[in-house]
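Re: Re: token formats

Sure, here are both.
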Amino acid sequence: MLVSDSRELYERLLTCNLLKNSPKFWWPSYGTFEVVLGVILTQNSQFKRVEISLENLKNNGLNTIDNVLTCKSELLIECIKPSGMYINKSNYILTLCQAIKDDFNDFKNFTCKVDREWLLSQKGIGKESADSILCYACKRNVMVVDAYTNRLLKALGYEFEDYDELQSWFDVDDALMAANFHGMIVEYMKNNSTRKSVKLDKMRF
């Protein structure tokens, strides 16, 4: 194995200075409802296209739960079209917003009280999406793992059977570390990998 544990991987990624041009917690609009929208829109889409959709939503005032629930569905769909799968995603957004309203009343209460089980019970929310919401919208100490994470760890000599086993490999101290650890992995893989290979020399092996 090229790294002994997640702490060593974290330290090696830090040497690459991957987040020098990123916000403190990596994900834009950390701790806001916009993260929830972004998590859904990011599914099977490039983040550049998601950013266009988020800007459309913001320009039309659709960056709050109440405004999403009271808007015409046609407007919501038009705003998120750049992200693709816009019919399904609009349904997921509306359903989740209504569930948040029904069970938590507002976004602030949602961020304080929601748990992973509740999120996973919502239509269109899988493990990665649930953990992304907990980490980046709710400011929780939750490590998000994704395809990039799995590919990097595989290149380092590790194999995992499923999402939960991969996630359990990581040891994170707090919300800032969790957010930045995932962010560093994504940034590293975007710049140092292809579908067939991962360059590891940037981490000074």
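Second one below.
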Amino acid sequence: MTTIYDPANPLYLDEADVREELTRVYDLCHGCRLCFRYCTSFPTLFEMIDKHEDQDAGRMTPAEQDQVVDECFQCKLCYVNCPYIPELHEWELDFPRLMLRANAMQWEHGLKSIREKSVSKMMSRTDLIGTVSSATAPISNKVISAKPGSLVRKVVAKATGASAVRLLPTYSRTRFSTWFKNRPKVRLGKRQAKVTVFPTCLVEYQEPEIGQDLVKVYEHNGIECSNTDASCCGAPWLHSGDIKHFTKVAEKNIKVLAAEVRAGTDIVVPQPTCSYVLKKDYVEYVGGPDAELVAEHTYDTSEYLMMVHKADDTVLKTDFNGDTLGKITYHTPCHLRAQNIGFKSRDLMKLTGAKVKLVQQCSGIDGMWGIRDGNEEIAIPIAEKLSEQIDRAGGDAVAGDCHLANTAIVEQTGSEARHPLQILARAYGLPDES
């Protein structure tokens, strides 16, 4: 049996080898059961093995193995809590990476249905969809915002694969890059650092206000900002199993971002899935000096500001004369926790004088998995658990770094959820352009 996570290995897409490794890992997970509460993959796995008197993972059929794979939405919490990961144990168990490998094997060998492949190809073209939807925002938003379960939404689900019943993020008529290009030039009194903003497709097309407040907060603290021509990080392609298309996207972005770093900037990313991809997946699937350079200089936006705050030669302003909050409920996105950098957004908001209550329940979104048609039966109950914890926390406001997770919060609670940098911008007294 082999333990292969390297996409360049000749056996990476070999079906027999993948299934042998699935059997090995499924057996280990069945014996441990630590991760039963993170997603339905594990209860499904345990039930399938428990039905056999000898509880032999090798008795699982390929279809049963694949069902476990299909129910994994790459939250990565099992890896965060697993005692048998490659860095710690000889078993070298990395469940999320194995699921990515299994997805890639299914894609390569035609084990995914034509419908599933077509939906993945449609939803993964975020830049094309974003460009068209932003240009036609009044019309596209009317369609997107139609009543869940309505005929309009069912037609959209049939055409695009987006859920007919989930609340979907709408599009902005003015893209972040357009705002950045046309905004008045800002003269910094004393430049402390220089960064390139990797806006992500969510901020570029759907919630540019996050990017606007990012830039304002950074410039308020003497950090010069530039924008980049990089495209979507490619996560939808990777998570669907199309690693060839993901690698193509990644190589293009690495070239652009490595040039930015060599020009003297760091890369800051306001969405946790995308920062994870730049830090981790580009190195795994493309590799090389440029990918490592980009990973080394990529930061979550709050992570970077806390680094400025704690450094000896830089200063983060702590004069908060604007609208501050007494108690904030902060949802910690799974892909931010997976980066193992601590709770930097919490620490940042605490500087404003607020008491911050952590809610660490997954939103069940994780990229686009939770808003795909057909995943609602699993995804919505996970979001409902998040809603219950937010209600119990009872804060004056809700904050979260992931815009898709924040959309799920709005869907389930009816309350707005804002990015931590938006909380910080208002505390500084910086204007809200929306």
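The CA atoms of residues 16 and 22 lie 10 Å apart. The radius of gyration is 22 Å.
- S.
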